[in-house]
Structure formats: structure tokens, C-alpha cells
Write a structure and sequence with these properties.
alpha+beta
Length: about 150
């Protein structure tokens, strides 16, 4: 983390780049805040950005949800599970049920336990080795409940 980084200076810079009207500048601001805060955007930063740019926190939350690379303190990790037809034939449905019941989560939501966002996605093009998941973008194959627990830890 850079010692001299300052949120107010970053806000001024990205405002000069057109944020919040320029969504690309706003997303880059959020990425920088995430990088400077240990790869998760703190809620306090979201509140301050919304206040200083005169936008709603719900708008920022929607932007963050739209970009899977953006993470909050509430959900610093992303779990994706293949929902392709072939994985469905390889116990993927059972794994999805396990995830949803164990971590109290539905696709497109944040886990109530475990600190991750969860979503089902289309084919991951690794059908022969299913069921497949991605944890923070890293592919895991032949996943069972025990392996899933170790990945999430």
C-alpha cells in the first residue's frame, strides 16, 4: 500500500476525469480504493465516495455488483459454480444445494456466513472434469463438498 495515498485526492482526480457521470472513471476510482484497502472496498469508503460525489450509496452498490472484480468488505471473495448441462450431470446440482444450505446463500447474493458473493454461471468449458467452481477467478475441478470447504477456508 502506498504511504501517500489519500481518498480525497483520488476523489478529486476521478471527478476531474468525469466521475460519477463517466462510469468508467467511477469504476477506476472504486478499483483504486479496493487496491489501496487490501483488495476489498470498505463500507466507510463507499459512504464517503457517495457523499463527496453526491450520489446514492445504493447506486455505488449496484455498480460494485455489476463488476465481479470489485469486492466489498462484506464479500471480499467470489464463488462461481458451473451451471452447464454436463456439470449438471456430474452432481453439480448436489453441490449447489450444499452451498446454498451450508452458507445460507442464493445465486447473485452474498453469503450470510463465509464472506463471499455467490453465483451460478454458464459452462466453464471444463466439462470432463466437473463439477467445476471458480474461487476469485481460479478454476477448481472435480469439486466435492470437502474440497469446497477447504477452498472457502
Amino acid at each position: 500500500m502506498e504511504q501517500n495515498w489519500n481518498l480525497n485526492e483520488a476523489l478529486e482526480y476521478y471527478r476531474s476525469q468525469g466521475a460519477p457521470q463517466n462510469q468508467n472513471a467511477l469504476v477506476e476510482l472504486l478499483r483504486e480504493v479496493q487496491k489501496e484497502n487490501g483488495n476489498a472496498i470498505p463500507q466507510t469508503a463507499i459512504d464517503e465516495i457517495a457523499d463527496k460525489l453526491n450520489i446514492k450509496t445504493s447506486f455505488l452498490s449496484a455498480i460494485i455488483k455489476h463488476y465481479p472484480s470489485l469486492r466489498t468488505e462484506e464479500a471480499p471473495h467470489l464463488l462461481e459454480i458451473c451451471n452447464g448441462e454436463r456439470c449438471q450431470n456430474k452432481n453439480c446440482g448436489q453441490l449447489k444445494n450444499y452451498i446454498e444450505k451450508t452458507y445460507y446463500v442464493k445465486s447473485g447474493r452474498v453469503s450470510k456466513t463465509g464472506g463471499f458473493s455467490y453465483k451460478t454461471v454458464g459452462c466453464m468449458n471444463n466439462c470432463a472434469k466437473g463439477p467445476n467452481i471458480k474461487w476469485d477467478g481460479k478454476l477448481y475441478s472435480n469439486v466435492n463438498e470437502q474440497m469446497l470447504k477447504s477452498v472457502i477456508k
